[in-house]
Amino acid sequence: AQKITQTQPGMFVQEKEAVTLDCTYDTSDPSYGLFWYKQPSSGEMIFLIYQGSYDQQNATEGRYSLNFQKARKSANLVISASQLGDSAMYFCAMRGISNFGNEKLTFGTGTRLTIIP
Amino acid sequence: EAQVTQNPRYLITVTGKKLTVTCSQNMNHEYMSWYRQDPGLGLRQIYYSMNVEVTDKGDVPEGYKVSRKEKRNFPLILESPSPNQTSLYFCASSLSGANHYEQYFGPGTRLTVT
């Protein structure tokens, strides 16, 4: 079974500082992908970044980077130079394909990030 | 415009009154999925479909039904809603067959069952 754990229910960070949101995972699928989504107060789900289980390099997308440590089963999101608009709920998610071809997605419980001016 | 649409966006109903939340996507995606979002629990997958006529249970399927008769539509059916199904529901779609396909989410449906 897949499992995603986000241990930080809430975080407060000063504007312009970097922030790391933690995510650990567990899966028996041979191949999987890890995603981060942002959910602002308006409610929509916004895709931020993706990391494949076989990718050798950490993914980056603008101010977002994913610190992928496969041996530790962690996929932390790093936001550099935080902005007020980064205040939102952040979800880590995993997509796995089992040996039977079933595709399953699992989300963590989320981290609410608040950027302080 | 590529999008996932859900209707209704808001619904208040009473216990036991059957309801359907519709979901439609215009991106020709094979994979479609329903989630519910509850405070402190994140998003939990209810049902998913990997293609037409292929559906499977997610983590919290009890009390829900789905069907996938057409590729673009994936309705969520609550035959006899109960108050514990009060939640925010999201439909999502993506291509299928590889891990890197991101999901596209609908705007959400806020359901209250009294």
Structural notes for this entry:
The complex is a heterodimer of chains A (117) and B (114). Chain A has 117 residues and is mostly beta strands. Chain A contains no helices and twelve strands. In chain A, strand 8 and strand 9 form a beta hairpin. In chain A, 36% of the residues are buried. Chain B has strands at 4-7, 10-13, 19-25, 31-38, 42-51, 54-57, 65-66, 76-78, 87-94, 104-105, 109-113. The termini of chain B are far apart.
* Structural Rg of chain A: 14 Å
Strand content of chain B: over 45%
SSE succession of chain A? EEEEEEEEEEEE
Major sheet attributes of chain B: 7 strands, mixed
Briefly note the structural class of the backbone of chain A: mainly beta
Helix share bin of chain A: under 10%
The strand count of chain A comes to 12
Oligomer: heterodimer
Number of E-state strands of chain B: 11
Largest sheet of chain A: 6 strands, mixed
Q: Taking all residues together, what is the mean pLDDT of chain A? A: 93
* Cα gyration radius of chain B (Å): 13 Å
Question: What proportion of the residues of chain B is helical, as a percent range?
Answer: under 10%
**Whole-Å distance between the termini of chain A?**
41 Å
What's the quick description here?
Chain A has 117 residues and is mainly β. Helices cover 0% and strands 56% of the residues of chain A.
List the helices and strands and how they pair.
The complex is a heterodimer of chains A (117) and B (114).
Chain A: E1 3-5, E2 10-14, E3 19-21, E4 24-26, E5 31-39, E6 46-52, E7 60-61, E8 64-69, E9 74-79, E10 88-97, E11 103-107, E12 111-116
Parallel strand pairs in A: 2-12
Antiparallel strand pairs in A: 1-4, 3-9, 5-6, 5-10, 7-8, 8-9, 10-11, 10-12
Chain B: E1 4-7, E2 10-13, E3 19-25, E4 31-38, E5 42-51, E6 54-57, E7 65-66, E8 76-78, E9 87-94, E10 104-105, E11 109-113
Parallel strand pairs in B: 2-11
Antiparallel strand pairs in B: 1-3, 3-8, 4-5, 4-9, 5-6, 7-8, 9-10, 9-11
